[in-house]
Amino acid sequence: DVATTVAAVASTTAAAAGTASTAATADAATANAAVAASTTAAPLVEAATVATPSASGVATVVGAIADAVANTTAEAEAAANATVQARQPTMRKETPEASSPQVTVVEPEDSGRPTPPTHGYSPHPLLVSSLVTVLLVGLYGANTLYQQSRTKQKAERKSKGAVKPGAGIEKGVEGGSAPGGAGQDGAEGKQPASGNPDGDDSDSDAETLTTEPLTEDTYGMAIASMVHDMNRLAKDKTGHRHIRVCRIGVSFKLLLINMSLQIFLLVCIANFAAARAVFSIRSAYSAFETHMYDGHIYLSEHNNARGLDDKYFNSSYFATLPEDTKGDACRIPFAQPFFLFVILLIWSLLVVGEIKESATLFERLVVSIETTSTMADATEPCDGGGEVIVKLTMAMKAWVIFFIVLPRIFIASILLWLGCRWLSATTDFQNLVLNAVGLEFVLLLKELLYKSLVPPRDKRDTQRMHISIAHEAESPSPYAFFGTYLWGFVAMAWVYLYIFCIQGVLPGFRWDVHDVCAEWMKDNYAGWS
């Protein structure tokens, strides 16, 4: 029994030594402890084997073996803990390196915040804001002077008994049907060459206006149909009431189809064309920044790389960029800001013209025209067998505002922003020009539907419907001669603000592409030769 007990204790000791040896494989200190434990246990096992079977001797041997096993186990656990603690710093050092293949390097003296570029085409928001303010104040001042001048001229004409410009353009007006008709005495209504009854030459260039036809598109056709048919229905002078009601409905539906198609195209261009172009240009510029700033970068709001500071920019790294990255970076439109400015200006002028037409229509059909209680008084006959719109009801004015003017301005404004975004993200100069031309078809859709779908009778009715513009007659003045040129300055201010302040294609663009791409452009473009 004593021998069996000793053998069991020896086996336990050997197992403990094995455990210590296993733990020691991770560290040399553990191995030494295991060897020491084995060395300590070996004499005890040998002593137990040759020991006499006396109870006191067995108890002594067993106690010694138990103490040795306890010491060996404690040493093994201490060695294992030391091994784990020794390995933990190494694991913490490896974790950051494996978290991302691109490491953002920020030196201790840096705060990690980007600094604005000190080279290239830096934006000047204060200058732009001042320019826009001056333009708006100038426009307001010119308009104020113009209104004061018109009021003074009308007062002078009224006091001198002058014939109102454009009077007598409609049939049935007192004094005949010819423009500038005579008064009640049947005279021809001719004025002196000066334009004033007393022959004063100060107003010799005063103009006389009559009417202007509606535009031949879906908007003009809808206005002509609504005014003409509702006028006939209000007068009860038609035997085709149901047909005219149906034409009003069809014209209105065609107007809604035009606006729906324009909005649908805007959404598709934004989701499929502009979105892809923006993603590509951001990826190209991010790769350029990461390489050229040698890792001294920060991540923009869209997780794209941007250089921290100009001092980290190394133009010599451009030679080691992959060729496809060079091409994508150098064809960024912002690398040629003057070319981009002209393209966006042309596009902006095109859209501003659409907004200007809407504003003019609002002024003529809502602000300046008289209000009546019935559409029976809306039109009067004019020369050539047509009709001129002279009055509108409040309901018709509201219809013009909410279904003609506001949708047109809204669509044009969205198209202005979306067009600038898509063109700014086009990484191909020839496609930049083609896209600018192609975007125009969204604005021309109203003319396409009119020419392709509207019946000839409706087209002739649209051509015969005129708007009175007699109230727009004016004498020579700075506003009369130069006022609308301010729209061009507004377009230029918008383009400048978009490129340098509010564009979201490449937020944080550092204007660091143009200079390093100069040689690449010479090598890859033939030029004029």
Automatic annotation (TrEMBL):
The chain crosses the membrane at residues 126-146, 254-279, 334-355, 399-419, 485-506. Keywords: Membrane, Transmembrane, Transmembrane helix. The keyword Cell membrane does not apply. The keyword Repeat does not apply. Residues 81-122, 147-212 are annotated as: Disordered. Residues 174-186 have a biased composition (Gly residues). This is Transmembrane protein. It comes from Alexandrium andersonii.
